Amino acid sequence: MLISPLMGPIMGLGLSVGISDWLMLKRSLRSLAIAVAVSLITSSVYFAITPLSDAQSELLSRTSPNLLDVFIAFFGGLAGILAGSRKENNNVVPGVAIATALMPPLCTAGYGIGKGQWHFAIGAFYLFLINSTFISISTFIVVRLLRFPAKEFADVKQQKRLRGYISLFAIITMVPAGWVFYNTVTESFFNRRVDTFVNEIVTYDGTEIVKKYLTDSDSLRVINLVMLGERIPEEIANEWRSKMRLYELGSTKLRIVQGGVEALEE
Q1: CA dist., res. 143 & res. 148, Å (int)
Q2: Is the pLDDT of residue 94 over 60?
Q3: In what order do the strands lie in the sheet with 220-229?
Q4: Where are the domains of the chain?
Q5: What angle do CA 131, 136, 139 make, to 5 degrees?
Q6: Which tens digit of pLDDT belongs to each residue from 197-211?
Q7: 3-class state of residue 148 by DSSP
């Protein structure tokens, strides 16, 4: 990440479109394709032959990109091109490479390919695609705002067509990330309501909740509570269920397990 072999070609894409340098655009695309291919091949071969096979948190964190990654890439690209447009030497570009994490997603994609875990490969490569796209877009925007001199005479129709392609590609890239982000936020709010309900309502003298987990059953979410101690009367459990609507959990099912035996299941 510190060497950042991918940042140059990616920012070169946005710069070349901004100044209408089509030769630079071709060189940037070629350099990026080579760097991506080498990274994927190297990481795939490594993970295919290494005895290490468990996916750790660093790998898993690269497989589910969302809308936040779009913002990180966009603003990271802004910082990178603004720093690159200054005469003074600085270390912003390596910092942007670390923040936007260009190389780790490719290595994670290589892990997925090497281990045959294709959902890892797709998710990680999608994150790399998000980062590359929005770093390039932010570079293009800054280049246009700062009025960098054009390299070649710009064909208006060609520019409009190219900008249309870029806009369409950006939207296509953002939509899945936005959907994942929406689901993540919705799930977080749901889990918070469940925790509040359990902490405030599910109490009974002589019993203790030893485990709480969520499952899905017939398109319904199920709150599973494993409890030890005194057996909970059915009327108490029903009273708990009647209060679930107060926590916006009316469509959720409450299932209680006591002594290793399923009990009081509605």
Answers
A1: 6
A2: no
A3: 207-217, 220-229, 253-258, 261-263
A4: 7-190, 201-263
A5: 125
A6: 999 998 888 888 888
A7: coil
